[in-house]
């Protein structure tokens, strides 16, 4: 049995105690595998917590959706881990500059989203690799998603689902008004995307990288950071690839 460390969301305390009673917890530093108990949001939190430590993370769902998690069972953990299938994910790196010139950097394993802060629609200019692709997008917002995050907010905004090993990012508008017929784009994963907020003081916009929000932004730069890789483990036959494929055939 590999060395395990269990971590849990606040509302999964009972499950955490049960797992520690059944399995030894060697602590975060000595562990070979991190076991995360909670929902998808807690999995994202765990990915950030153990960033660059080289420890694979096996999630067990105690949340509502659990797309990034495995089913929760107290028994047979050793067997499940031995047969688990890995999925490597890379985050987006966001660099946001607000209207006062303050810069904030953050990583996002799901998506970076830009959202209007008031009743007025946002106006956003979008450039990819220093070439303006949309001079003025009038919208509630826009997001750029990793393959791992393509079934989250991106899917709710009618963006495409991406296979986990696709060298692509999804650029998806949120309630776009103009251009009316633009439904987003697929970008090569090496693309560098810049969002410029037009009329930033009049039409304030926030930027969100996973769970970090920066308000009143003027410019946001987003690019995938391939220097960072995290490994998630999934039960045999229930890999992230399979889940992403199956999600495209549900009613």
What are its keywords?
Rossmann fold; Tumour Suppressor Smad4; six-stranded antiparallel beta sheet; 2 domains; 5 helices; alpha+beta; 251 residues
Can you describe this structure in just a few lines?
The protein has five helices and 17 strands.
Topology (elements, then pairings):
Elements: E1 4-8, H1 13-22, E2 33-38, H2 40-49, E3 57-61, H3 77-83, E4 85-89, E5 92-98, E6 103-108, E7 111-116, E8 122-128, E9 131-139, E10 141-145, H4 153-156, E11 168-174, E12 185-188, E13 192-198, E14 205-209, E15 212-214, E16 217-224, E17 230-234, H5 240-247
Q: How would you describe the overall organization of this protein?
A:
The chain has helices at 13-22, 40-49, 77-83, 153-156, 240-247; strands at 4-8, 33-38, 57-61, 85-89, 92-98, 103-108, 111-116, 122-128, 131-139, 141-145, 168-174, 185-188, 192-198, 205-209, 212-214, 217-224, 230-234. It is α+β, with helices and mostly antiparallel strands and 251 residues long. Strand 1, helix 1 (13-22) and strand 2 (33-38) form a beta-alpha-beta unit. The chain has two domains: 4-89 and 229-247, Rossmann fold, CATH 3.40.50.10330; 92-224, Tumour Suppressor Smad4, CATH 2.60.200.30. It is built from five helices and 17 strands.
SS elements, strand count: 17
Domain count: the total is: 2
Annotation field: number of helices: 5
For the record, give the distance between the C-alpha atoms at the N and C termini, rounded to a whole number: 40 Å
